[in-house]
Structures are given as C-alpha cells and as structure tokens.
Write a structure and sequence with these properties.
Blueprint (H helix, E strand, L loop, with lengths): L17 H7 L12 E3 L6 E3 L19 E12 L4 E11 L16 E10 L4 E10 L5 E3 L5 E4 L2 E6 L2 E7 L3 E8 L5 E2 L5 E3 L7 E18 L2 E16 L7 E11 L4 E9 L4 E9 L5 E5 L3 E5 L2 E3 L6 E3 L2 E5 L2 E7 L5 E4 L5 E12 L2 E11 L9
Antiparallel strand pairs: 1-2, 3-4, 3-15, 4-5, 5-6, 7-8, 8-9, 9-10, 10-11, 11-14, 12-14, 13-14, 14-15, 16-17, 16-27, 17-18, 18-19, 20-23, 21-22, 23-24, 24-26, 25-26, 26-27
C-alpha cells in the first residue's frame, strides 16, 4: 500500500440513468456454473430456492441472472492520529428487465451503482459520494467467478491476500486492504435467507465478519494511515421485498470476543415486523440462526434530518434469543442521500453494541424506507 498522498478524483453521478436505478435496485440480488436456481419465465429472473448450495470462490463473484445484487463493506477505523471513523462502501448490480428486449449494444442490461461514505464525528460530518454507470465497455462491471466489481476508478476486488478497496471520490478517498480472519458466515439456512412468507421472498446471503483492515484514507487535502476492522455482506435476490413490505432495519456487528452478529427485520406499512432473522457466530465458531419471535427490534431515540426532514430511529434495543443489546450510534447525522443514483434516502451508520452500558461490539446499522416505501423493482 503506497504511502503517497491519495488524490481524490472527481465524482460523477448520471441523473439520466437514475430512473433505471430507482426502479430496479437499492442498497443495494447465475449463469456462471451457478448454484441451483429457479428462473421466473415471465420476468426472466433467477430465484434462489431451498436447494441453494453456496460454493467458493464461485459465489464471491457476480450472479447476473438475478435482479439485484450488492457487495457491502462497513467498518470502524482508527487513524494514526487517534481519530475514530466509520466507513461504508457499497457496490450494487441491477438488471433492468426493460433492457432484455432492446437489441441495442447500448441498452443498460446491467447497471452498477456505488455509494461510499466516511463517518467523521470529530468534524461532525459525513463524507459522502455516489456513482451510477451502465455495465460494459470496461468502464463498469461485476465479474463472475470471484469478486471484482468496479465503476471507473472505484473498485472492490478479491485476491490471494484478501480484498482491495479503492474509492476516489470528490473530496475524499479510500485505499484499504481487508484480510479475512474467518470463513464466510452463511445466513439463514445454509445461505438462503428468507425475507417474507412467500418462498420466493428470499436471497442468497453470506457475511464475512472480522475483516482486518489497513491502508490509507484522504479527506480533502489530508491523508492518514488507518487500521481497524470491517464487515462484508454479499447478497443477491430477485424478489427481496414482498408487496406489503416498506423497508428494513439491519445490523452487522463485529463482537469484541471475536464473534459476529447479523440481525434484520422487514417492516410493513404499520412499522411492525413482517419478517425477522439473525445469525450469531459465537467466539468458538459455533453458528446459531434465529427468526420469528426470537428477534425483536425496539426503536429508541430518533433523529430528524435538517436537510430532508426524515426522522430516523438511530438508537435501538435489540433482542436476539435471550440476549438483549443496545445499539448506540457513533454520531446521529449518518443519512445517505442517494437520490442521484439509486433514488432513495436511507440512514447508514457506525454504531456500538452495548450490554449494561458496556461495549461488546462495533459495526453498522442500516435503516431504509423511513421517507417512503422502498421498492426494489
């Protein structure tokens, strides 16, 4: 990793493509020797089914027959000067069905969207940027067979020594190495994660917690060496949300004892849990999965954005099985305005996980659908 100053290249959002993104994907779901899937003959999308079998390194890569897919990296960093920062970088791949019948070589058969942010409590700000590109011509794409997804000079790739993340945004930059310390954690039933009552409301979903991070970040004209820990989610689906679902609440936490916790709830129009799920990897490596009444999100303190007027519950009480945690944000203002790319507003932020006022883990909280019902089509 070079120690030279990181130069932040100009960001580029393409508003004329935002309509495709908003209708096809958020936050951002296999033709290449794929795990067993079922194809929807009407829409032409593949669906993960109960006979899903994840295989690596194949499933580190892209699954272009599915409607939506994302690679999602979040973490906590310490700078050489002792600052504490959060960061998130997400690459979305979306397959718009409207392009299938278009014979033009310029038809957007795959869209690539990137979101990146640094949570900087010392400066009281969120450094944020976004991009959107049509796949192809070498400018943007998602490789099959192993992780490589890129949009111009934004890229996440996996090699023999782990992941490389590079983002050159308008006024900040990341150049990070992420080394795996544990095998992938399969969520749901062997990687098949249900999101609602319908069998097709499901995703293929694994996490890589406890990634060891090193590298450099740039903010304006200052760059810093950093180290810390991160979490990677990779998920792909064609019917993520059922018609009466409006959004979700999600956490991915690296526990201080070496374990990991992922938990989510899908909300209905009344703000109640339509579906829940959780995966807990204990420090011994033993994995437990939870659902139904074993997972409960209870909203606490709310924060209202002065820019958009949207109110988000940024503090939570989370119960997984018999264990009860408090979710506490690193800073309140971690709202992501992605309306120029994926067309949505959401809260995505660094949080502490506490038990009896003692920190037991650090990770990220994601809150979607608080301004308007979220649609992934």
């Amino acid at each position: 990793m070079t120690t030279n100053r990181i130069k932040a290249a100009g960001a580029c959002a393409v508003p004329t493509l935002a309509a495709f993104a908003a209708s096809a994907c958020f936050a951002a779901a296999a033709a290449f020797a794929a795990a067993p899937v079922q194809t929807d003959p009407e829409a032409g999308f593949a669906h993960a089914t109960a006979d899903l079998q994840l295989r690596f390194p194949r499933d580190y890569g892209s699954h272009p027959d599915f409607r939506t897919e994302w690679w999602y990296v979040t973490g906590w960093l310490e700078t050489d000067a002792g600052e504490t920062l959060g960061f998130q970088a997400t690459f979305f791949r979306s397959r718009p069905s409207a392009a299938d019948a278009n014979p033009s070589a310029f038809a957007p058969r795959q869209l690539l969207i990137g979101h990146c942010a640094i949570s900087d409590p010392a400066q009281g700000r969120l450094w944020l940027d976004q991009r959107i590109r049509r796949g192809g011509m070498g400018l943007a794409g998602a490789q099959q067979g192993d992780t490589r997804v890129w949009i111009d000079d934004w890229e996440l790739s996996r090699g023999a020594t782990g992941y490389q993340l590079g983002v050159a945004a308008s006024d900040f930059a990341l150049r990070l190495q992420l080394q795996a310390t544990q095998p992938p954690m399969l969520n749901g039933v062997e990687g098949l994660s249900r999101k609602g009552p319908s069998p097709l409301s499901a995703s293929a979903y694994y996490s890589e917690p406890q990634l060891r991070v090193s590298g450099r970040i740039g903010r304006r004209h200052v760059d810093s060496g950093v180290h810390g820990e991160a979490w990677l989610d990779h998920e792909w689906s064609s019917d993520y949300l059922e018609p009466d679902a409006t959004g979700w609440d999600w956490v991915g936490i690296n526990l201080r004892d070496g374990g990991a916790l992922m938990a989510f709830r899908i909300r209905n129009a009344q703000g109640q849990a339509l579906w829940t799920g959780a995966t807990l990897r204990e420090s011994s490596g033993h994995v437990r999965t939870y659902g139904g009444g074993d997972v409960a999100f209870t909203a606490g303190r709310r924060w209202r954005s002065g820019r958009t007027g949207v109110s988000y519950p940024v503090a939570w009480r989370l119960r997984v099985g018999t264990r009860v945690f408090d979710v506490v944000p690193l800073m309140d203002d971690q709202e992501n305005d992605a309306r120029a790319s994926s067309g949505v507003l959401y809260w995505e932020g660094a949080v502490q996980l506490e038990q009896q006022d003692r920190s037991v883990g650090r990770g990220y909280l994601e809150l979607t659908g608080y301004d308007a019902p979220l649609r992934l089509r």
